[in-house]
Amino acid sequence: MSDLRIAVLGVGMMGADHVARIGSKIAGARVTVVNDYLTEKAETLAATIPGCRAIADPLDAIADADVDAVLLATPGTTHEKQLLACLEHGKPVMCEKPLTTDVATSLEVVKREAELGKRLIQVGFMRRFDAEYVALKTLLTDGELGTPLVMHCVHRNAEVPPNFDSSMIVKDSLVHEVDVTRFLFDEEITSIQVIKPAANPNAPQGLQDPQIAIFQTASGKHVDVEVFVTTGVAYEVRTEVVGERGSAMIGLDVGLVRKSAPGHWGGQITPSFKERFGLAYDVEIQRWVDAVRSGVNVDGPGAWDGYAAAAVCAAGVASLESGLPVAVEMVSRESITGA
Amino acid sequence: MSDLRIAVLGVGMMGADHVARIGSKIAGARVTVVNDYLTEKAETLAATIPGCRAIADPLDAIADADVDAVLLATPGTTHEKQLLACLEHGKPVMCEKPLTTDVATSLEVVKREAELGKRLIQVGFMRRFDAEYVALKTLLTDGELGTPLVMHCVHRNAEVPPNFDSSMIVKDSLVHEVDVTRFLFDEEITSIQVIKPAANPNAPQGLQDPQIAIFQTASGKHVDVEVFVTTGVAYEVRTEVVGERGSAMIGLDVGLVRKSAPGHWGGQITPSFKERFGLAYDVEIQRWVDAVRSGVNVDGPGAWDGYAAAAVCAAGVASLESGLPVAVEMVSRESITGA
Amino acid sequence: MSDLRIAVLGVGMMGADHVARIGSKIAGARVTVVNDYLTEKAETLAATIPGCRAIADPLDAIADADVDAVLLATPGTTHEKQLLACLEHGKPVMCEKPLTTDVATSLEVVKREAELGKRLIQVGFMRRFDAEYVALKTLLTDGELGTPLVMHCVHRNAEVPPNFDSSMIVKDSLVHEVDVTRFLFDEEITSIQVIKPAANPNAPQGLQDPQIAIFQTASGKHVDVEVFVTTGVAYEVRTEVVGERGSAMIGLDVGLVRKSAPGHWGGQITPSFKERFGLAYDVEIQRWVDAVRSGVNVDGPGAWDGYAAAAVCAAGVASLESGLPVAVEMVSRESITGA
Amino acid sequence: MSDLRIAVLGVGMMGADHVARIGSKIAGARVTVVNDYLTEKAETLAATIPGCRAIADPLDAIADADVDAVLLATPGTTHEKQLLACLEHGKPVMCEKPLTTDVATSLEVVKREAELGKRLIQVGFMRRFDAEYVALKTLLTDGELGTPLVMHCVHRNAEVPPNFDSSMIVKDSLVHEVDVTRFLFDEEITSIQVIKPAANPNAPQGLQDPQIAIFQTASGKHVDVEVFVTTGVAYEVRTEVVGERGSAMIGLDVGLVRKSAPGHWGGQITPSFKERFGLAYDVEIQRWVDAVRSGVNVDGPGAWDGYAAAAVCAAGVASLESGLPVAVEMVSRESITGA
């Protein structure tokens, strides 16, 4: 079996990271084409990889005969066109979140894939590949907590880039908890409320941080999420599921425990998402590569998942403005698949 | 200095526990009078305690010349009359929660005490005496977390008595988090929302359990509380405060950690409130005894705190019905103290 | 039942602490006599306690008609004479460790008590009253770990007084692990080896610190102890028992857990033995008071336990010099009790 | 750069695992030759790997023109001859422990590699690649604990194969702590003592389990190790280093923490070494592949490390018999390198 030939579109921080990962950690795959709107950047990178070319036009890159599959790390606004091109060429595509930047185009992408009758799109919700989330999912699937009833999530960053605004907290941060909820509970979120506590004095002027989100799911489960992106402390992601027969928590940040004068004990909190989920990214890419090469349909999060996330986030932004619960509007999955 | 002579009114589970505590753990105090609406029960108990009599009428018990101070463990509906009698006789009284069973009578009690110009009433919020809560309070007072912004609370019971109804979850369970919020943040709760997730299948028919309560405080701090009283697991009380310079959590239930076949590690969760807060009860009573004997005014939670709790709970019950945020209505403290 | 009248002999740090404890935390007891070789110190203290006198001669204090029981917190060298006086007067005595300062006199005390046919002496091994040790003991008694095989102990102090020498590490520190071993395993220690690692550069000149002690018990159980008294960190006491069906550990110093910038999490280690075992001291004294007042023989650690500790420590000091295993020499218990 | 062509010698459990790893997780490498003394087994395996042949004679496999490097997972008794063949052909070799089965042949191998003046051999001490051990090493290197003084290690298996004997506990289990000690402290072990507690009643007849090993290092550091291979519980590896400025512990087995009725909390202990160190194996192999392909000398544990381990284990087996401390005999490293 020959290596999977991948085109990586967008070689900013995330895309370049994926290029390096494929080259150094992923068996059975190699990057044959790179593309970026900064042409020179792509060319410089291509020159460092044996058998890799830069192609200036993203659609040409997708169409190229030397490309079996596509990894999309371009800005979200360009995803729709690029995803549709991948579908047109029948090429599997691994798409970093978001699927697209609004609900309507996300749905359009979902429909076009459904028409093909073949799963080609995977979205980059890497937490599904993290060992702790997998363990928690298994616990739920095995029924060991009984019916899940309530979930508490915490999502904290030490800091965010200067351009980060209040709605990005929903679309870029909270979106992960949206997918976690759907992944763990296997049902859609039907309502979201965003609460705005008094803001952190250290947050940039105008940034509503922290935010508290309340999800209600189809069967009435309650999820609350604290998103706090200017804590100045560290990267902290914690999830507790409370079920009818017990509860379980992940993300306690334990590990090396140290004692030192004067009278302290403790450890180091994961400094950033790279350390926390680096292995999850590896597993994610490798499974996708393996699935694609073997011809078996990928089973990671798909276009529908990207669409659902977009729908919930749109409602979340609305609730952020109104302060009230906002119903999530989604078409039924059956209307797409015809099943 | 001679021993403090205490009348214990109400010798059901809680009252009998206090009688035993005073006899065996509390220096400088003794029970000289017991009272219960079940006369025989009080007499039987009195017979076991040297120098102790049963008095049939609670008001007579309060007035008795052999009584320096009163401990009230009677049903909440009788508190108002008994508290006023204590005030009339100028006798210090330690009153188990609630202060009274509604907001109006609570306020009346507060006013009558204020008219005396002397602090005589203490309410039984024993968490203020628990070592972990004290440590958390100290952390906040010392400013080590900066401005507190958000608090997450969990309050779980394995089970509740058969007559426990949905509003008792608010008035008997959530009330503790009400006081914890006021104690830790030193400000009033201005709004409460109670969310009703799909009920625990194992809860008695008609009981809304779990419940999620959202408090907003005067300065805009956010507090969420999971109250879940039919977990079947254990007694779990957990509190996390998130501030501008870090967060802190208490109630993680660690202690003896054990590993056993096949492949498990863990420990025992505190089985009930007696184990969890037994020492706090001791400290509470002892400090009160000491304060009363030395003539220094008591500094534990007072009538105002009982009143504030009643006000918040009333709003909570309203929100439980409407599902919407309900403003808490309270008179200003200045209108009472005249300060 | 009237209060137990206690004479406290020796009112240095430990004795004064006990005097305060009895006055403020212990029900059913009061200090009627205090004694110290610094006469003025005892008189000053007595003046602060209602109904309490200072008596200059310790033997007179023991004999005094106003004394039901004696608490010994005098220097170890004076214990033998004072203990024998207590036995002579048939007065119960709570004796801070050591029982006496050498094996022979300890044995003499054991014999004299045995001749009386009545248990009068309790030795101050307060760990037996600590909740964690009690939980560990219960686990073993209930057979949940099966046969215990190995125990690992850690005993660390941040610092010690300037006069602390290498043998005091054995006699004053390690002695607690000696009693813990005997308490948990219900059998005697038959061999001890003290290993001398390269010394801590921060330890005072000449102090062998840390020390590693290896005990073997009668049935062949292995116990190792790290004693390290100049860590500069905190007071840490940890015990892990490994049995045929699992292991259990106490003393992990968890509690309030805090996260703070830059990227640390952790808590506060118990700063000293007062915080760690304060409650154990209370329980210890109270149980003793109760047992004495009720006329039931005390069941805490007795003279035999003090003797056994002395025997093991003597062997420990010998091993400290030779670096080799040293057999512990003890008479059989049957030779004393005649049973 | 073309893929590294690897011959895997020995395709039992460990070798087959490495073959699978290279095929599915390791970038830049492929298995071109497999060998086993069970010829058919090798042929069956080769048939499943594109471009891979079975070669019946291990020395032919090493010499094969289609082989750049060798991975040795054959029985330890065959290592010497195979390692020398690798050296003769100038081929890098990754050798599973032990280097050879006795001290003399280990030293011979070290010498032959030294004569070549080129580092070709790496030994399979994979803990050096485990994230927690790396974090602990970094802590020590950065001096955050000051001078290390004492180390406590625990090494527990739930069970062992039927043929496991008392000396294998030293040579196959304890050997890892030997390397951990040398890795963390950067100095040789100079003395070892193996203590034999009363055996676990559940251990096979004749197996001395648990065993306690005491190491002393060149500078006088103390290391104790509990090796207990029939716990019936799980795979537990724990290491605590105590230094002059604090202590640090790894291997606490925390992760997903769960609460369940009736009143338990806890998590799952790592079931076996595959889960615990699987990632470490990946990193180990990948770094080795990368180093070999780039022509830079490998920096993992080398032949000298294998020799040192053999020397310590030989002394350990001797102490196992005598029960006394046994000095470790080794030539000086300078006598080999001539430096």
UniProtKB/TrEMBL annotation, chains A, B, C, D:
| Any one GO MF annotation of this record | inositol 2-dehydrogenase (NAD+) activity
Q: Does the keyword Oxidoreductase apply?
A: yes
Catalytic activity as recorded in UniProt: myo-inositol + NAD(+) = scyllo-inosose + NADH + H(+)
Where would one find coiled-coil regions in this protein?
none
- Give any Pfam family that matches: GFO_IDH_MocA_C
The protein's superkingdom reads: Bacteria
| Enzyme Commission code | 1.1.1.18
Tell me the subunit arrangement.
Answer: Homotetramer.
Summary of the function given for this chain in its UniProt record: Involved in the oxidation of myo-inositol (MI) to 2-keto-myo-inositol (2KMI or 2-inosose).
Spell out the HAMAP family in the cross-references.
IolG (MF_01671)
Tell me what this protein is called: Inositol 2-dehydrogenase
Q: What is the organism of origin for this protein? A: Mycolicibacterium hodleri
Per UniProt, what is the name of the gene that codes for the protein in this document? iolG
